[in-house]
Amino acid sequence: MSKETAVYTHGHHESVLRSHTWRTALNSAAYLLPSLKPHMKILDIGCGPGTITADLAELVPDGHVTAVDHAPGILDQARATAAERGLENVEFAVADVHALEYPDETFCVVHAHQVLQHVGDPVQALREMYRVTKPGGLVAVRDSDYAAMTWYPLSQGMDDWLDLYRRVARANGGEPDAGRRLRSWALTAGFTDVTSSSSTWCYATAEERAWWSGLWADRTVASAYADRATEGGHATAEQLNAVSEAWREWGRQEDAWFSVLHGEILCRKPA
Question: Can you name the residues that pair with 45 across neighbouring β-strands?
Answer without folding.
Answer: 68, 112
